């Protein structure tokens, strides 16, 4: 009889897991290692059904002060469901050689609390799946701090260049648009 009690939770996990996989947009398939941590971020589990801003970052880029603006954006809208995902990359030769140094820049120097990954490839054939999917829907990052606004269904509704600051009215309008769309 005790065996059955264990079987029910396992069955529930299987059913919920398969439903979750079916509801996961292609953009959010897979996982990425969390910055300076031992765990991975299961993208579907963490972001499916949520409005999302994805940005490729670099610690030693002239646009790095945008971390403050991205953090302010996150703080302003997180209670409305907005998620921000920062993906450091050395594709433009401006990222630290190790995650510890990247973490110091993000967490200590700029006070980032939104989700950050370990450095990843964001361009070309070796790009991680997330950035390949972003590029398919919009365009490849042209430089660091390229921003993508993604709706709750995993569709890119807007993308912005490095020159667009996080407090830019057009960027804010795109974020507010995905927040307003409840479906």
Describe what this molecule looks like in 3D.
The protein has 183 residues and is an alpha/beta fold. The chain has one domain (25-180): Glutaredoxin (3-Layer(aba) Sandwich). It is built from 6 helices and 7 strands. It has helices spanning 2-23, 43-47, 66-77, 99-109, 129-137, 169-180, and strands at 31-33, 40-42, 52-57, 83-88, 115-116, 147-150, 156-160. The strands form 2 sheets. A 5-stranded mixed sheet has the order 5-4-3-6-7, with helices on one face. The chain has a two-stranded antiparallel sheet with strand order 1-2. A hairpin with a 6-residue loop joins strand 1 (31-33) and strand 2 (40-42). It is globular, with a radius of gyration of 17 Å. The termini are far apart. Residues 3-21 have low confidence and may be disordered.
Main beta sheet: 5 strands, mixed
The percent range for helix content is: 25-40%
Radius of gyration: 17 Å
Say how many strands there are.
7
Report the CATH architecture. Answer: 3-Layer(aba) Sandwich
Low-confidence stretches: 3-21
Q: Separation of termini? A: 43 Å
Report the structural category.
alpha/beta
Query: Can you tell me the overall shape?
Result: globular
Average pLDDT figure: 90
Number of domains: 1
- Quote the CATH topology: Glutaredoxin
Family: Belongs to the glutathione peroxidase family.
Signal peptide: 1-21
Protein name: Glutathione peroxidase
Pfam family, one: GSHPx
